[in-house]
Design brief:
The complex is a heterodimer.
Chain A lengths: L1 E7 L8 E7 L8 H10 L29 E4 L2 E4 L11 E5 L6 E3 L2 E2 L2 H9 L12 H10 L7 H5 L12 H13 L6 H12 L7 H5 L6 H21 L1
Parallel strand pairs in A: 1-5
Antiparallel strand pairs in A: 1-2, 3-4, 3-5, 6-7
Helix pairs in contact in A: 3-5, 5-6, 5-8, 6-8
Chain B lengths: L2 E5 L3 H12 L3 E5 L16 E2 L11 H11 L6 H21 L5 E2 L2 E2 L1 E2 L9 E2 L5 H18 L3 E4 L2 E9 L2 E9 L5 E5 L2 E3 L21 H8 L4 E2 L4 E10 L2 E4 L3 H4 L3 E6 L2 E3 L1 H5 L9 H12 L4 E8 L5 H7 L1 H11 L8 E10 L2 E2 L12 E3 L16 H18 L21 H14 L6 H18 L3 H15 L23 E6 L2 E6 L5
Parallel strand pairs in B: 1-2, 1-12, 2-8, 12-21
Antiparallel strand pairs in B: 3-7, 4-5, 6-7, 9-10, 10-11, 13-20, 13-22, 14-15, 14-19, 16-17, 16-18, 18-19, 22-23
Helix pairs in contact in B: 1-4, 1-11, 2-3, 3-11, 5-14, 9-10, 12-13, 12-14, 13-14
Classes of the chains: A alpha+beta, B alpha+beta.
C-alpha cells in the first residue's frame, strides 16, 4: 500500500492543507498518474481517515511523458506524474503543485507566465528558415521541450515576473539559433542574450531535472557561443 | 469584426489559425490545455507527400491511388485528390517553418510506410508530430503577438449556438474560473478523434475526451463512417493506456512473428509477399488477431527489430528505442517486443464537404474529428497531412468569404452533460465489445442491449448517444470493408461502397448508408 499525501486547496484563495489517500496496486509500472486517475474514478472517494473527499484537481493529457501536462512536485522534486513509478517512490509519497506558478486548485497551476515569456522574447522565425543536416540534431533536441516547467521549478535564477526566461524560454530560442542563418537571427540572438544568457547562473539544475532528458547543456553551449560571439563582434566594431 | 472560433489547438487548429492570420483575419484558438499538450504531439512516424526525392518516380497520383485503395474506396475521392495534390506544398511549408525533417546529402529523405508502394513518408526521427507542433506553435505565436490569434488555453467547449441551421458562435467555459462565454463568429471544430469514448483503451490523450464531438452530434451535426475505428497493429500496454510503437519500426525493417511449432513464423511475409509487414494497418491487425487464435500458435505476437542497423537506431528511431526500454525494460535492438493491436485512430467523424463545411452553415471541421480522407482505413503518415491540410482548407474557404456580423449572448448557463467516470468506463467496455477487430450482428446487438441497460440506469448523455450511433453504424454496414470486418458478412459488397451517415434529431438517432447530401 502507498500513502499519497497531497497538498490540496479548493482555489487560489483557499488555505492549503494536506490530505492522505491510500492506494494499492500490484502493477510494478503504476505511476502517480495511475493512482490519481484511480482515486478520482472512485464513486465514494475517502481519505485515509475515512473522511469524504472531493476529486483531486490535476492536469494530464498524454500519460506517456510527451506532453508535460502532469508536472508536479513529487517527494520534493518536480517531475511528471506519468513518469513517476510508485514502486520507486517509497511507501509514503508527498505530492504538491509546482511552486513557482499560481495555483488554480489542488495540483493544477497556471503556467501562463511561461507562454507569455515566449511571446515577450518573440520566439518565432520572421521569414521562415532553411533546414539543413548540420542544424538538424540541435533543432530536434531543442524542439523537444515540453514546456512543462520542471526546469523553472529548480532554477535558482528564475522567478515569475523576472527578466530571466529560464530554459523553458532558452530551448525554443535555441531551435531558432540553430536553424536561422546569420543574416536573419539578430533579433533572436538579442532575445537570447537578454532573456537567457544574462540571467543564467549556470547551475545546470535544469539539465538534471528535464523529464524529456534533453541535452540542455549542449544546446546552451551552442547558443551561448552564437550569442556571445555576436556580442564580441559588436564590441570590436 | 468577425473572429473565427477554432475549437482545438492541435495540428488542425494551429494550421487553421495560422492560415487565417496570414490572410489578415482574426481568430480565437480555444483549447482545454495549451498546444504542447495536444494529441498531435504523440504522432511519431511521419507525414506523406509525393515529393519524389527518393528516385522512385513518385507522383501525387500514386499517393492518391494508395490512399483510396488503403481506405478501400470509401474516402471522398475529390477530397483525397485535393489532399494528395496539396501534400508536397504542405510538407515544404512545414520545412520552411523549421521542422527538422531527416535529411541526407542536403536533401530531405522519406521512408516506407504501410500500404504504400513508394518511400513517401517525410519524418523527424520518430517524433514527427512533436516537431511539427513545435514549429507551428512558434509560427502561431507571431500572430498572437500581432493580435490576430487570441489564445484561450484552458477553456472547454460546451456547444455551438445554432439557430435555424446556422452556427452563430460557440459557448465555452474557462476551466480555471468556471466562467462561461458565448463567442460570436463562425466555428472550425478541430477537436480530435473519439478516443475519449474508450477510456484507457487507446493510444490517445485524456484531454481528448470526445465530449465536443458528442455534443455536436446531439446538436444535429451529421457524422459519417462512425464504425471505422483503426486498430494499430503494434501497441504496448502501459499502466494508463495503450502506447504506440510506430509503424516506422516496420518501415525500417521490423518484422512480425508468432511462435508456431517451436519456430518463429513470420506470417505477414508468408501471406503477403509484396508488402509483407507493411500491409495496411487493418490487414495487419486482423492477421495478428487471427494468428493469435490459431491452435498451433502461441498467444503473443512479437515485433522483431533485432535486425535493424546501428544507423537506424541512432539516426531514425532513437526515441522509440528509449521508450521501449523505459516501459518494458527491453532493448529492442537485442530482444523482440511483444505487441498487440490497440485503438489508435477514428476514420469516422463529422461529415464535411471537400472545403470542410459541415451540414450546419457557418460550422466547419478539420483533423481527426472529420471523416472524408481516410475511408475504411487510414494509411500511416496521412493523419498529420489530413490535419494540417484540412485546417488550412477550412480557413481558406473562410478567407474567400466576407466577414459575418452579429453578436450572440449567453442565454443560460450550460453544464457539461457528462456521466460519472465509472459510467464512461462502462460505456467504453460496451463499445469495445461490439466494435472489436471482428464484429457480428449478434455481438453488436448484445452491445446495444447493454447500452440500453446502461442508459436506463445512469441516464442518457451526449456520449452514450454518439456511442449508440457507432454501434448502429456498424450494424448497418452489412459487409466487410477495411477496418470494419463482419464475420457474418465477410465479403465486400460494392453496393455498399458509400459512407454510413448518422444524425441525431430531437434525441432520436438515425443511421443510413449513402445519403451524402449535406
Amino acid at each position: 500500500m502507498t500513502e499519497l499525501r497531497i497538498l490540496r486547496r479548493k482555489n487560489a484563495e483557499d488555505k492549503p492543507y494536506w490530505q492522505s489517500f491510500s492506494y494499492t496496486t500490484d502493477d510494478p509500472n503504476a505511476a502517480v498518474s495511475t493512482a490519481l486517475t484511480e482515486l478520482n474514478a472512485r464513486t465514494d472517494l475517502r481519505d485515509m481517515g475515512g473522511e469524504k473527499a472531493e476529486p483531486i484537481q490535476w492536469e494530464c493529457s498524454c500519460l506517456q511523458k510527451k506532453c508535460g501536462a502532469c508536472a508536479m512536485v513529487i517527494n520534493g522534486r518536480p517531475r511528471l506524474a506519468c513518469d513517476s513509478k510508485l514502486a520507486e517512490l517509497g511507501e509514503k509519497v508527498t505530492i504538491e503543485p509546482l511552486r513557482k506558478f499560481p495555483v488554480v486548485a489542488d495540483l493544477m497551476v497556471d503556467r501562463k507566465a511561461m507562454f507569455d515569456t515566449l511571446q515577450r522574447l518573440k520566439v518565432w522565425a520572421e521569414e521562415g528558415v532553411t533546414i539543413s543536416e548540420g542544424s538538424q540534431d540541435d533543432a530536434f533536441e531543442a524542439a523537444g521541450c515540453l514546456q512543462c516547467g520542471c526546469c523553472l521549478e529548480v532554477c535558482p535564477n528564475f522567478y515569475v515576473g523576472g527578466k530571466f526566461a529560464g530554459m523553458a524560454g532558452g530551448l525554443p530560442l535555441a531551435r531558432l539559433i540553430a536553424q536561422l542563418d546569420d543574416s536573419s537571427k539578430k533579433e533572436v540572438l538579442k532575445a537570447y542574450r537578454k532573456g537567457v544568457y544574462a540571467g543564467c547562473g549556470k547551475s545546470l539544475a535544469c539539465r538534471d531535472i528535464c523529464p524529456a532528458g534533453l541535452d540542455i547543456e549542449s544546446l546552451m553551449v551552442n547558443s551561448n557561443r552564437a550569442a556571445a560571439w555576436k556580442t564580441l563582434l559588436k564590441f570590436r566594431k | 469584426m468577425e473572429k473565427i472560433n477554432i475549437i482545438g489547438a492541435g495540428l488542425a487548429g494551429l494550421s487553421a489559425a495560422v492560415t487565417l492570420a496570414k490572410g489578415g483575419r482574426h481568430c480565437r484558438l480555444i483549447s482545454l490545455q495549451p498546444s504542447e499538450r495536444a494529441q498531435s504531439v504523440l504522432a511519431e512516424g511521419g507525414i506523406n507527400a509525393a515529393l519524389d526525392v527518393m528516385g522512385e518516380g513518385d507522383k501525387p497520383e500514386y499517393h492518391f491511388e494508395d490512399t483510396m485503395r488503403g481506405g478501400v474506396y470509401l474516402a471522398d475521392e475529390e477530397a483525397v485528390r485535393r489532399l494528395t495534390a496539396g501534400a508536397p506544398d504542405t510538407v515544404r511549408w512545414l520545412a520552411e517553418l523549421g521542422v527538422p525533417f531527416n535529411m541526407k546529402e542536403g536533401r530531405l529523405i522519406q521512408r516506407n510506410f504501410g500500404g504504400q508502394k513508394k518511400k513517401r513518408t517525410a519524418y523527424a526521427k520518430s517524433s514527427t508530430g512533436k516537431m511539427i507542433m513545435s514549429a507551428l506553435i512558434d509560427e502561431a505565436r507571431k500572430y498572437e503577438v500581432r493580435g490576430l490569434i487570441e489564445r484561450f488555453a484552458h477553456h472547454s467547449f460546451l456547444g455551438c449556438d445554432i439557430a435555424e441551421g446556422v452556427c452563430r458562435g460557440a459557448v465555452v467555459c474557462d476551466r480555471y474560473t468556471g466562467e462561461q462565454t458565448a463567442f460570436a463568429g463562425r466555428v472550425i471544430m478541430c477537436c480530435g478523434g473519439l478516443a475519449g469514448l474508450f477510456p484507457r483503451m487507446t493510444t490517445g490523450t485524456t484531454q481528448n475526451s470526445g465530449y465536443a464531438a458528442a455534443r455536436l452530434f446531439e446538436q444535429g451535426v451529421r457524422f459519417g463512417n462512425l464504425e471505422m475505428l483503426q486498430y494499430h497493429p503494434t501497441t504496448i500496454g502501459i499502466p494508463d493506456k495503450r502506447c504506440l510503437v510506430t509503424e516506422a519500426a516496420r518501415g525500417e525493417g521490423g518484422r512480425l512473428y508468432i511462435e508456431r511449432g517451436g519456430e518463429k513464423w513470420y506470417f505477414m511475409e508468408e501471406k503477403y509477399p509484396e508488402l509483407k509487414n507493411l500491409m495496411p494497418r487493418d490487414v495487419v491487425a486482423r492477421e495478428m488477431y487471427m494468428v493469435r487464435r490459431q491452435e498451433d500458435c502461441g498467444g503473443t505476437v512479437y515485433l522483431d527489430m533485432t535486425g535493424l542497423s546501428n544507423e537506424v537506431w541512432e539516426k531514425r528511431l532513437p526515441d522509440l528505442r528509449a521508450e521501449i526500454r523505459h516501459y518494458l525494460a527491453i532493448d529492442p535492438a537485442d530482444e523482440p517486443v511483444p505487441v498487440k493491436e490497440g485503438i489508435h485512430y477514428f476514420m469516422g467523424g463529422i461529415y464535411t464537404d471537400v472545403f470542410h463545411r459541415t451540414n450546419i452553415e457557418g460550422l466547419y471541421a478539420a483533423g481527426e474529428c472529420t471523416c472524408q480522407y481516410h475511408g475504411a482505413n487510414r494509411l500511416g503518415g496521412n493523419s498529420m497531412l489530413g490535419a494540417v491540410f484540412g485546417g488550412k482548407t477550412a480557413a481558406e474557404d473562410i478567407l474567400e468569404t466576407t466577414e459575418r456580423e452579429g453578436e450572440i449572448s449567453l442565454k443560460e448557463k450550460l453544464t457539461e452533460n457528462e456521466p460519472a467516470e465509472a459510467v464512461k468506463v462502462k460505456l467504453g467496455e460496451i463499445l469495445y465489445s461490439g466494435l472489436g477487430i471482428v464484429r457480428s450482428e449478434k455481438g453488436l446487438k448484445e452491445a446495444l442491449d447493454r447500452l440500453d441497460t446502461l442508459e436506463r440506469e445512469a441516464g442518457v448523455f451526449p456520449r452514450t448517444r454518439l456511442g449508440r450511433a457507432m454501434l448502429e453504424s456498424a450494424l448497418a454496414r452489412k459487409e466487410s470493408r477495411g477496418a470494419h470486418y463482419r464475420e457474418d458478412f465477410p465479403e465486400k459488397d460494392e453496393a455498399l461502397c458509400k459512407p454510413t451517415m448518422a444524425v441525431c434529431q430531437n434525441g432520436s438517432i438515425s443511421v443510413s448508408i449513402g445519403e451524402t447530401q449535406l
